[in-house]
Amino acid sequence: MAEGCFKTPAKPKGRTSKGIDVSGGKFNLEIPASPFLARLGYGTGVSVYSLDRGKEQSPWAIKKLNKFYRERQTVQKVCLEKEAELMRKLNHPNIIGFRSYTQTPEGPMLLLEKCDWSLLDVIEERVDKGSNAFEAWKIEKVAKDVVFALEFLHHTLFYMHGDLKSANVLVNGDFDAVKLCDFGVAVKMDEDFTAPAEEYTGTRYWLAKEVLEGSKERITNKAEMYSYGLTVFEMLSLSFPHMEDATDCSTSTETDSSFPEDEDSVVDESENSTLGTRPYLPERLAAFYAADKNYNDILSIYFLCTSENAGERPAANHLASSFREKMAAGEA
């Protein structure tokens, strides 16, 4: 990912946050100023940094507002507070772990478990190296772990993630663990699994047709299953959905001191008639997958979840049950 450009101060100045509450305990944690932290990634108005806590402790990730946004009462600030509140409830092996939320001289900070890299990074590295398709087990591992996270979100907490895509899926090691992250635009559902369509923001290329059309009717959890299908598509196609000419999937080019992007410079994706439909797999890869039965289940998930008809898409708990049956039979 793009790295921010900073000037090194003449005298390094650390930032210390005292009394951070983590798992019921209190301790002093020194958080260096942003220029002295390695940036892991960024989104609209926020950056994520790595915090090294010493040799005997695992590193954490720090999510913080960029300068323009932390000095104002912005949507981004509200989203970070909302994310912290929800993260406290998200105790699941396939969801990034919450560590703390604290106020510092640099504004509010959300401290989280740190993973090795995002699924987007993994895909981009594979493309850069000129590698062919992912092995079937790796795609199935991501599909399984993500749907377990969605099952918990949808059917236990009645939330939708709100922006499901490869950039918001994290990976440890060689797909040893897969975890969902970034809950700043999560959507609360009623117990009938519905929510107002306008509350589901997401990223347009990954949105289901019923969300894009701004239906007056409420959307269901099945809208998110379309985004899930397109996340599987990213691994199958080694590309982004509905973006044939795209070379960069990032949604922001901001640095720590930047202003919001100029809306006039944003491409009007609404003119793309393929949005909300099932994107085609590249012919070369489609032929490869068709010849290898190990990809059959993955292809079935992709086709089912990307149906334009929401009623035809499986719910997360149904897919999770199918994966558990495969695991019990020693097939996954």
UniProtKB/TrEMBL annotation:
<feature type="compositionally biased region" description="Low complexity">
    <location>
        <begin position="248"/>
        <end position="258"/>
    </location>
</feature>
<dbReference type="Pfam" id="PF00069">
    <property type="entry name" value="Pkinase"/>
</dbReference>
<dbReference type="GO" id="GO:0005737">
    <property type="term" value="C:cytoplasm"/>
</dbReference>
<dbReference type="InterPro" id="IPR000719">
    <property type="entry name" value="Prot_kinase_dom"/>
</dbReference>
<feature type="compositionally biased region" description="Acidic residues">
    <location>
        <begin position="259"/>
        <end position="271"/>
    </location>
</feature>
<feature type="domain" description="Protein kinase">
    <location>
        <begin position="34"/>
        <end position="327"/>
    </location>
</feature>
<protein>
    <recommendedName>
        <fullName>Protein kinase domain-containing protein</fullName>
    </recommendedName>
</protein>
<dbReference type="InterPro" id="IPR008271">
    <property type="entry name" value="Ser/Thr_kinase_AS"/>
</dbReference>
<dbReference type="InterPro" id="IPR011009">
    <property type="entry name" value="Kinase-like_dom_sf"/>
</dbReference>
<dbReference type="GO" id="GO:0005524">
    <property type="term" value="F:ATP binding"/>
</dbReference>
<dbReference type="GO" id="GO:0004674">
    <property type="term" value="F:protein serine/threonine kinase activity"/>
</dbReference>
<dbReference type="InterPro" id="IPR053235">
    <property type="entry name" value="Ser_Thr_kinase"/>
</dbReference>
<feature type="region of interest" description="Disordered">
    <location>
        <begin position="247"/>
        <end position="275"/>
    </location>
</feature>
